[in-house]
Amino acid sequence: MKFLSSIVAAYVAVVAAGEDNVQHYSALTDIVQPAAETLQSVALSELHSHLEVQSPMHQIAQQCSAMVTQIRNERKAAVSAHASYVSMCKKTMSEYLSSSLSNNQHKSENEEKASLLFKQHSQKWHIPAQKNASRAARNATIATQEVLVARGQKNRDAAHAEFLKLQAAFEKALSEIAVIGRVLNGEGSLGDRHGAQGFLEEKSCSTRFLELKEATAHVPQVSSLLEAFSKAFATVEAPTPAVAKTATGHVGGKVASHQSKTQSSTKDMDAINTILTKVRENLVKAMTLSYKQETKLINLWQDDKKERRKKINDDWISNWENLEQQGSIEEKIGDEWAREGQHRVTAAKHRKKRDEVDIMRDFLKTACEKEARDYPVAMSGFANELNALARVLTYLREKVFPKDSVWSQGLNTVVSMPYKWKEEAPQYLTVKNTYSTTNFDSDSVSCRTPMATVFSKVRTLTEKGTGFIYLDPNDLTHSQNMDPKRNSVLKGVDCQQFPTGVPVGYAHSCSEENYVESSIDLSGTPYHFGKAAKSMFKVLGRKTDGSSVKFSNSDKTVTIKVKGRCGDAYADDAPSHNADFRSDPIPLEKGEGSKK
Known about the structure:
By secondary structure, the chain is of the alpha+beta class. It has 13 helices and twelve strands. Strands 1, 2, 3, 4, 5, 7, 8, 11 and 12 form a nine-stranded mixed beta sheet that branches.
């Protein structure tokens, strides 16, 4: 119903307006249509529809003024929101980066400690095996020593058993010899064997010694000695002629008869006693020597056994010390291994935190970069809408409404904000070598047509009250859109950011390698760029290192070079963090500038 009412009102207005306003509708359509189509702006599209149905000029003026106010408010809100978002990005990115670096540092420190511990305990891995091998070797030595000790003890026991046999043989022989001596010397008694009379009646001394020799045959040392003395007795006992004669006599009964057989004379008896004494002495001497030898062998074996047993026990002690050392080393290995594991767990936890923060930082970085890309486009959209509306209002003020009318003055106030421009006919300066460029190589963003807007004239505005002169960068009346090298005129422009052309003194690039250049040359005019103008030019965007704004030719020329992702360089009266990407009026000063 509202749309229908507007159409009815439009037709009424057309009839009322007459033929004189038709040319105004056509001119305003030419102003709005390019921006409306390129920007896809709801406001400009609505304004264009009003022009198509030829709404009354006052209605169009009211609508444009309201749109300007609304867009400025939206732009102000967008600038504020962007500033808050950028502040959040910087703060949060800084916190994320600090957290990431801290966690990465802790991760690296723990990994370094873990690696050091691994190096320490891995250098000990071979020691337990060495300890096992040394114990095995020592066990083999102990077993060998035990065998030798057991064998030595067995041999010693066998030797001592032989000694005991020898001792018993010596004692038996000495005992028998003592009996024989007492009998031969008339000292026998009934306690000696079968009685002193019967012991030697039956057998001679040589025979008795042979029996002793046979009794001690298991002891060669004694039996060989007894055999020798048996032969000596046999020699002495051999009968002589004198003895043979007397042997038939009876002297002292049986004893005398026996003595007559063995003692033919005192001389023979002495020889027999001498032999018995010699036998006894030799036996005692041999027995004493055997005792000494046995004692010496016992002592040697005792020393040898003590030494071997000491070696065995020392080896056992060494083995257990070795095992204790191995346990201590394995405890150290286990402790270092456990601490290594703790450090690796801690490092993994810090890596987890770092990765989580890095992921959040990457996503936030992407969002912030998107905001950084979208913000200039949005601000350029606002700027282009305002420029288009300003051109409409300027046309209405200059071509439709009387100069001194309330409508004209009101429109001037709307267009001038926040400045107050003097109402006057458009003033232009003829310039040369003045152009603005946008280019992106093969990486287009919001402008599919790289171009240079070349100016033959630039408009100046006079501030009411102060009389200060400003260059209006958004007036494209005397300009042409050409290729970036300014060799040929473009037939059409497909650029959302700059739908009708690039403002004066604006350079835009989306290339990280190649610079885009723009220039304003006021040579031949009475003006130059002063301190206020110089402070307005700024470079915005990412990766814009090397971009520059340089003043030369006594400050009459400014050359702008920019590159980046994406880079913008232009004049803005707001600080960089609140830039709205709309070129603002540039203050000019009369006379010659600095010669530097």
